[in-house]
Design brief:
Elements (H helix, E strand, L loop, with lengths): L1 E5 L16 E10 L11 E9 L5 E11 L4 E4 L9 E9 L5 E10 L14 E2 L2 E6 L17
Antiparallel strand pairs: 1-5, 1-9, 2-7, 3-4, 3-6, 6-7, 8-9
């Protein structure tokens, strides 16, 4: 389980800045509704979190229809009893002049259970920052014996 806090002033980290043995591939992209959009800061967003199994097939699709604003925190509980192969996060919102902005980040996990936590407090991906992490179930990953971070 992760608490994700939104900071709309953050951009995407470069893929080579994500140094983590638990992440095999990482992509982050902020897209706009047209090329003339220069303000990449939304005023509010709606989000989707998609969990993928080890074959990269969707096993969970969570949608938050309430609008979230800068500074809000969202708690995400991963699917239990399954080894997650990857995640995709999509956030859509509008800037101050009503132009559509979309943040998409995705990561594939190495599933190296000696690496925990894969996402640590302070890690950021685009507008999201991990502010709390709880260990996975021990039966899914032996590294789960590690204490969670507050």
């Amino acid at each position: 389980m992760y608490d994700i806090t939104f900071n709309f002033a953050q951009g995407c980290p470069q893929a080579d800045q994500v140094e983590n043995a638990g992440i095999g591939q990482f992509e982050c992209l902020i897209e706009t509704s047209s090329e003339d959009v220069t303000d990449l800061v939304p005023t509010e967003i709606q989000i989707q979190i998609i969990e993928l199994d080890q074959s990269m097939q969707i096993i969970n699709h969570e949608v938050e229809l309430n609008y979230l604003v800068d500074g809000d925190t969202y708690t995400f509980a991963a699917t239990t009893g399954v080894t997650i192969g990857g995640m995709r996060f999509v956030a859509q919102g509008f800037n101050q002049v009503g132009q559509l902005i979309t943040l998409t980040w995705s990561m594939e996990f190495t599933n190296d259970c000696s690496v925990f936590p894969v996402l640590s407090v302070g890690d950021f991906q685009g507008w999201t920052m991990v502010t709390a992490a709880v260990a996975p179930q021990a039966l899914v990953c032996p590294a789960a014996a590690v204490e969670a971070t507050p």
